[in-house]
Design goal:
two-stranded antiparallel ribbon
């Protein structure tokens, strides 16, 4: 259980730092695009924010994957 809490804390700190760096990095971004969902589309967002937030979301989802590999 201690390992799970340590992993969750590490992942949350790492992804929070990435998100902060993402906001600092997109300050002067002028290329904007909309994300088209099935029903609606978003407001115009910088392309670097769309790519960066997708990377961070993938990192968060991937960190919840638990590998149970037993060598027999």
């Amino acid at each position: 259980m201690n390992f799970l809490i340590k992993k969750l804390f590490t992942v949350s700190i790492f992804n929070s730092c990435l998100f902060l760096l993402l906001f600092v990095g997109i300050q002067n971004s002028s290329n904007k695009s909309k994300v088209d969902f099935l029903i609606n589309e978003t407001i115009e967002l910088p392309i670097s924010f769309i790519v960066g937030s997708s990377f961070i979301l993938g990192s968060i989802i991937g960190s919840f994957k638990i590998f149970n590999i037993h060598n027999e």
